[in-house]
Design a protein that fits this description.
Blueprint lengths: L9 H11 L3 E5 L5 H7 L4 E6 L14 H8 L5 E5 L2 H4 L9 E4 L5 H15 L5 E4 L5 H11 L6 E3 L2 E5 L2
Parallel strand pairs: 1-2, 1-4, 2-3, 4-5
Antiparallel strand pairs: 5-7, 6-7
Helix pairs in contact: 5-6
Length: 164
């Protein structure tokens, strides 16, 4: 299957699928849907949340909604949510087995997104997976939440933490 544009490598996609197999997944950040498609192939269900207005300061920062919808609209196990994470996710009254965080990449946003993800993964002893671990700001934001704990697994720029 052809995947949409994105920075998730084949190795990272395989690891994300290993972690998500049979699980309920909350995806925070989808861009053009590459990770959404990868997750949908193995997860029980994916709730994919993105505002589709780009990441401030990054290349190809335009509206990704049409590309995203073209890639994911026919995936039966994906709920598409067009919203800012902080606006929508607090209203979810469910726990997820895995939360994939790939939103804004500044340390404050990563901290906020990881905390939001932890709230929805705590009761299921879930996993928080961060993309772009090679960005210093992503590591800094995560360190504020996980108190400098090292990832349980690290494949490429994909870091996974079990919520405790």
């Amino acid at each position: 299957m052809n995947l949409p544009d994105g920075w998730l490598s084949k190795q990272e996609a395989s690891e994300l699928q290993r972690l998500a197999t049979g699980k309920t997944v909350l995806e925070l950040g989808a861009w053009k849907g590459r990770s959404t498609v990868v997750l949908s192939q193995v997860a029980r269900y994916v709730v994919s949340v993105d505002r589709h207005q780009g990441i401030p300061g990054h290349i190809d920062n335009g509206d990704s909604l049409l590309d995203y919808l073209g890639a994911v609209r026919n995936l039966e196990n994906v709920a598409i949510v067009i919203s800012d994470f902080q606006t929508f996710v607090p209203f979810l009254a469910v726990s997820f087995d895995l939360v994939f965080v790939d939103g804004d990449h500044d340390a404050d946003s990563v901290e906020r997104d990881v905390l939001l993800g932890c709230q929805h993964a705590y009761y299921s002893n879930g996993i928080i997976v961060l993309h772009d671990w090679d960005f210093e700001e992503v590591r800094e934001g995560a360190a504020r939440v996980f108190r400098d704990r090292q990832p349980d697994s690290l494949v490429g720029s994909l870091a996974a933490f079990t919520v405790q």
